[in-house]
Every structure is written in C-alpha cells, then in structure tokens.
Write a structure and sequence with these properties.
By secondary structure, the protein is α+β, with helices and mostly antiparallel strands. The strands form five sheets. Strands 8, 9, 10, 11, 15 and 16 form a six-stranded mixed beta sheet that branches. The longest helix is centred in the middle third of the chain and has 56 residues.
Length: about 625
C-alpha cells in the first residue's frame, strides 16, 4: 500500500533488505551534520536527522588566546558565513561577521565595538568524548522517529479509507430519512428497519428504498466498499501499524535500560524518569492497537451481518430465493441501536473534539485500577483516549524525553577561542557579508621522545579567506590562519602560537574563490582583472602548499579591540604565477570553486555557462567541458 513508509523503501517494498535497512540503524556510521544560519544559530544533528544540540553565537561569552585579559566579550548582529567541524569532532570553526563588544568597555553613544569578520572556535569535544553513548542513543531514537512516521502515515491512510467507505454507506442510507419525511411518517430509519426485522411488512418509504433507491446491485456495492475497507484496515494494522508500534516499544525499552546506567548516560541528559514515562506510553499504544483491532473486527462483522439481512429482505421483496443468506437477528438489533448512526472505528482514528472521550464501562475501569496495584499503567484514563490521541501523547512524551539530552549537550558547547580577522564597512552591519573563505583540518604528526618514540596525531585547522581591498594598506590579499584549533600542546603544558600569513595575488588578477585541499594545500581561483569593459577571458587555478608558507606568530594583547592581521602587512608574500603550481583556464570564471579532496578534482564554472572539471594531482591539462 503506497505512502505508508517515508522514502522509497520500507515495509511494503519487495526488496529483500527493505525492512533490514530500516531496522539496522546500528550499522550507521557515527557522524554529525553541523549547519549555521544568518541569524547566528548553529544546529547539530547525528546522522544528519537526529537533533542533539544547538548554540547561538549571539549568546556566547567569547574569549581569545591572543588576549591576556579576562574580560568577557560577545558578538552583536552576527551572521554566520561558514561552519566546519573537525574530523575528530572536538572543534568547530565558525566564520562570521558582526560587532565584537568587550563588556569591560562601556559602549557610549558614538562608540562602537570591533565591526568586522571574525573567527570563532567552539569546543565540541563532548561529541568525541561521549561518542559511544551518543551513537547508541541516536540510533535508537532515530529509528523510533522513522517508525513513528510509519504509525502516523498508517493512521492517516486508515482514516481516509474508512471515511470513504462510511461516506458511501451514508450517502445511500440517508435516503431512508428523506423518504420517511416525504411520506409524512414520524419515525426513524432504525424504527423502520426494526419493524421489518420483527416480521412486519415493509413500510412504503422502506419498501421504496429497498426496491428502488438501493436495490440488490446498490446494496452489494455498499457492502463491498465497507467490507473491503475493513480488510484494508486490518492489513495495514497487521503489516505496518502493529509491527511499528511493537518495535517502538522495544526501542524505548532499550533506551530506558540505558537511562538506568547513570554513570554513563546521565551526563548526556538521558533521564530515567522521562524514559520510564515514555516506556509506559509505548505500552499504552500497544494496548490501543489491540483494542482497535477488536473494535474493527466487531464492526466489520456487524456490517456484514446487517448487509446479509438486507440482501435477504430485498430478495424476498423481489420474490427471489434467499435461503443461502444466513444472518444473526441479535447482531442486526445491536447494529441498528449502536452502529447505524455512530462510528466507533472513526472515533478511534481521530482526535476527540472538546471534552468528549471514549466510553469505558465501570467493570473495565475497576480492572484497570486493580492492574495498577500489580505494576500496571499508572495512568488510569488511557482507555478513554482514542488510538490517535494515544499515539500523539506517546510521541509528545518521547520528544519531551529527548529535550533533556538536547539541552544538556547544547549547554556544553562553549566558545574556546576567537580571532578578529578584518574590519568591514559600517554599511555592511545590517546585511550578511559574503567572503570567499574555506576551513579544513590537516593531520600533523608530532613526536614525543621518552624511552620509546611515540607518534601522536593532532588536527591543525587552516582558515583561509579573501580580504577586502579597503581594510589594509595593501590590496588584493589572501589571509591564512593556523593554530586556533591545535590544542595538543595545551594538554602538554605548551602554548602553541596562533600563526598567520598574508598572500598578495599576482598583479592583473583577482581572487574569485578559494578552497583548502588535502595535505595542507590551498587552491586559489584567479580571474584576470578587466582593464576594459570586457575581460579577455583568462583565468588561473593556483595550488599552494600551506605548510611551506612563512607563517608569523600573532602577538598577545590585553584586549580584543585590535585587528591582529594588521601586524602582517610588512611581511606579506607576493605570489608569482611563474613560481607557483598554476593551471591556465581559457575562460573567464565565476564562483563557486568546488574541490573534492577524496576524488582529487576541482570543478570550475565559466562565465559562459560552462563547467570545467580538472584533475588536480596531474600536471597536464586534462579537462572535460560540459555545456
């Protein structure tokens, strides 16, 4: 049945591994999607789908390793340009523009903070230190969310199918009420049918309905629609809804077990009481599914019995043989009293309106109270809710249970370092400022000598960006910073310096875009500066080895009210096309530059609607053009 499982695969597929693929979330590789927006919010999602934390850079108290002052600083009107999570998940680099305000400096009228482009480093080591716990929780929780979607869609499809069948039934049988009014009788359709069942002759309106308005063919169509809908609902419950609800109960049960391991899981916010409550809700959902199946089976049986009796009555009116149509008179009476103008199936599939609830007899309520004394559900009112309401409550309870890990992890994402990069014009304060920039992390092997040599690997973050022409006394520059995230030395009591280098683009060209490549290489996309109204259409792709550049250590100061890269203006490096690894591109190019380190290729977009793919690790110009 299409539409019951999200995506292109699920329970109903014919593929051998469709169910296996959905249930084996434990085989998913632990990874985290990090995304930032122009409002300063950064979201973290395990597997890209399960939210595990968020932080807004406007609310961060920022500090810098280059400042000896303990004064707290913060960013105002910050807009995120780029975020990059390190491979070891311990650091997040955030490139943003905004106004840096130091709390100890009173900002009076006419005074401003440091308005410009900044680099933040967030400590996200919780994702690495608690990797096992977060992976286990996320794989169970994300599987529950997938299965919840199965339940939600199943309920929606079932409600539609049953609603269509009941519309067909009422469309035909509402004619009885109209005919009774037309004949001037003071009775109800149920009274007329009961009179016929008791052996009396069919009244004129009922006779007209059975012989003309309904007829044998019409009755069979209505019976087929209702019985068919009942069978479809039973299949959906057995093949989709019930298995999903049972697996949800199992998964929540596993999470409940993990929550009892407080030494490991309380630190990431998995609360035992909240998981106990979610487990109980999952159990209530299973009970509701079982009740729905019983109600559905009873209703379908009574409809079928009612249609058999009506068909027998129609055949008697038509003087046709009707011996092969057995029915139960008691069930017909029950149907006419309780089901003819009521719909318990639809009631269970929908949310109750107002204060209305499902009626539960006193004997059943007494049994529920007795079961509570023996470890049963503490909520004694659950049978008064519908199946749809129970699922809604279970889902709400589940989401509430995972707000705790979300808030716990969010509270542990703190700003570790900050570096103001360059100023921007005050006119850019109220709008996002786009800067060609790139962030990557390279593995450096460090040596520690003792009795035996131990090799240690540390990730060094490289941040590269294009500087605006009007921010320094020199123009057409690229800035490269490293050391902000290199914290292995800090663990050993050694202070690693933050280093930077300024690169001047060759005369006659300007940087369109840039990207950090593998092994500390930087790819620059240069386009020829137009001296006339039209460019000649010449561009270059230059590859630099970042580790070979003469980096300069940035000095420390008491405050964060200065731009550190100003110190490097006298030590800027002037690049020459002839002395660097450069590849000519016979086209005028436009951003963005797309570089794949794993494939070793770069994609460049030409101004004339052409894409060019280059193999970066080869010297010859191998290029494939796509119009």
């Amino acid at each position: 049945m299409p539409g019951l499982v999200p995506g292109d695969s699920g329970f109903m597929d014919d593929g051998e591994d469709s169910f296996q693929e959905l249930s084996n979330s434990s085989h998913q590789r632990y990874n985290i999607l990090c995304s930032g927006d122009m409002d300063g919010s950064i979201c973290f999602n395990i597997f890209g789908i399960f939210p595990i934390g968020t932080v807004n850079i406007h609310n961060l108290v920022v500090s810098s390793s280059l400042s000896s002052s303990n004064a707290a600083s913060r960013l105002l009107n910050a807009s995120i340009c780029k975020v990059a999570l390190s491979k070891d998940l311990c650091h997040l680099v955030v490139l943003c523009n905004g106004e840096l305000i130091t709390d100890e400096v009173e900002q009076g009228e006419g005074q401003h903070g440091l308005l410009g482009f900044h680099c933040l480093v967030l400590n996200t080591s919780i994702f690495s230190k608690r990797k096992t716990e977060l992976h286990q929780v996320a794989q169970q929780a994300s599987n529950i969310e997938d299965l919840s979607e199965v339940v939600r869609t199943s309920l929606s499809v079932m409600s539609k199918i049953w609603s269509d069948a009941m519309h067909t039934f009422h469309e035909k049988f509402n004619t009885v009420s109209t005919l009774i009014i037309d004949h001037g009788l003071d009775s109800t359709p149920q009274d007329e049918f009961l009179s016929l069942l008791g052996g009396a002759r069919a009244s004129p309106p009922l006779h007209q309905f059975l012989e003309n308005s309904l007829g044998e063919a019409g009755l069979k169509r209505v019976a087929k629609a209702v019985n068919g809908a009942g069978k479809e609902l039973q299949l959906i419950v057995l093949d989709h809804l019930q298995p999903a609800a049972e697996i949800i109960g199992f998964r929540i049960g596993e999470l409940r077990g993990l929550s009892k391991w407080r030494a490991r899981y309380k630190g990431i916010g998995l609360d035992e009481k909240l998981m106990d409550n979610a487990t109980e809700r999952a159990g209530m959902l299973l009970v509701q599914v079982e009740r729905f199946m019983r109600v559905l089976a009873s209703v379908v049986q009574q409809f079928s019995n009612f249609f058999s009796w009506l068909l027998k009555s129609v055949k008697i009116l038509m003087a046709e043989p009707s011996d092969q149509l057995p029915f139960n008179s008691e069930l017909v009476i029950i149907f006419l009293k309780f089901l003819y103008d009521q719909d318990p199936v639809r009631q269970l599939l929908e949310i109750s309106e107002g204060d209305s609830s499902v009626e539960v007899d006193l004997e059943m309520m007494q049994r529920i109270k007795q079961l509570a004394h023996f470890g049963g559900f503490s909520d004694l009112e659950y049978l008064k809710r519908t199946l749809a309401e129970e699922f809604q409550q279970m889902e709400s309870c589940f989401k509430g249970a995972f707000e705790m890990p979300f808030s716990t992890i969010s509270g542990k994402l703190l700003c570790e370092d900050l570096l103001p990069l360059f100023p921007i014009a005050s006119s850019s304060k109220l709008k996002p400022y786009k800067v060609p920039a790139s962030v990557s992390y390279n593995e450096d092997i460090l040596h520690e000598y003792s009795e035996s040599e131990i090799h240690q690997q540390a990730l060094t973050g490289y941040i590269s960006f294009k500087l605006p022409d009007d921010c320094f006394s020199i123009a057409n520059c690229i800035g490269i910073v490293r050391g902000l995230t290199h914290d292995l030395g800090k663990l050993e009591g050694i202070s690693d310096p933050v280093e930077a280098a300024l690169l001047c683009i060759p005369d006659g060209y300007h940087c369109i875009d840039l990207s950090l490549y593998k092994e500390g290489q930087i790819v620059l996309l240069l386009d020829e500066t137009a001296t006339t109204s039209e460019s000649s259409g010449n561009a270059y792709m230059m590859i630099l080895q970042a580790g070979d550049l003469p980096f300069v250590s940035l000095s420390k100061s008491n405050t964060l009210n200065s731009w550190k890269l100003h110190e490097l203006q006298d030590s800027a490096i002037y690049l020459q096309l002839e002395s660097e690894k450069a590849r000519s591109i016979p086209h005028s190019v436009v951003p963005p530059l797309a570089v794949s380190a794993s494939r070793g290729v770069a994609c460049v977009f030409a101004a004339r609607k052409r894409s060019l793919v280059y193999i970066l690790d080869e010297d010859e110009d191998e290029v494939s053009d796509t119009e």
